[in-house]
Specification:
Blueprint (H helix, E strand, L loop, with lengths): L3 H23 L2 H17 L1 H4 L5 H30 L10 H11 L3 H12 L4 H8 L3 H18 L3 H8 L1
Helix pairs in contact: 1-2, 1-4, 2-4, 6-7, 6-8, 7-8
Length: 166
């Protein structure tokens, strides 16, 4: 187990400098934060070795800058592919039904939403959903049942409600 006290001190003492360096390097705060986070993860994983370096922060800067450059190259490659192949032709806008279903799913508890997505969208059997979510099969079945009921309540059809009221 790495020396967490030593790493915590290293992190607190270097995080602002590293983030500032990466921000200047990338010109994008979110990219800088992502690269810094990944660099600190790698430093933590190798802390027993890194802490013994003459300048652990220099190692961190090299790793972080390589991560940032790698991400930039990946984005550049994707942009080139987009330019080479162009935008997808005739991508239809999502239907109002799709938008309504997604909005309704967002209102469900995460566990129900995950079970519904794995089972109905990806077609996984209940046992596989249970394994992937680390939940008992009975719990997955309950989540699916409650999720379906909740969705039915959230996805009311106005024409049917008007006919029922008449």
């Amino acid at each position: 187990m790495p020396d967490s006290d030593g790493f915590d001190e290293f992190y607190r003492g270097s995080r602002q400098r590293l983030l500032g360096f990466l921000y200047v390097l990338t010109g994008d705060l979110a990219e800088a934060q992502d690269a810094a986070q990944e660099a600190y993860v790698r430093a933590w994983q190798r802390w027993s070795t890194v802490q013994g370096y003459d300048d652990p922060e220099a190692w961190l800067r090299v790793v972080a800058s390589r991560i940032a450059v790698s991400r930039w190259r990946s984005l550049r490659s994707r942009a080139r592919a987009y330019l080479r192949h162009g935008a997808p032709e005739n991508v239809p806008a999502p239907s109002t039904e799709t938008v309504e279903v997604v909005a309704a799913l967002r209102r469900l508890p995460e566990a129900q939403r995950t079970a519904l997505a794995l089972h109905y969208l990806l077609g996984l059997p209940v046992a596989e959903v249970a394994r992937e979510t680390a939940a008992p099969v009975g719990t997955v079945k309950a989540r699916l049942s409650r999720g379906r009921v909740a969705l039915a309540g959230l996805l009311t059809v106005p024409e049917l409600e008007e006919a029922a009221d008449a």
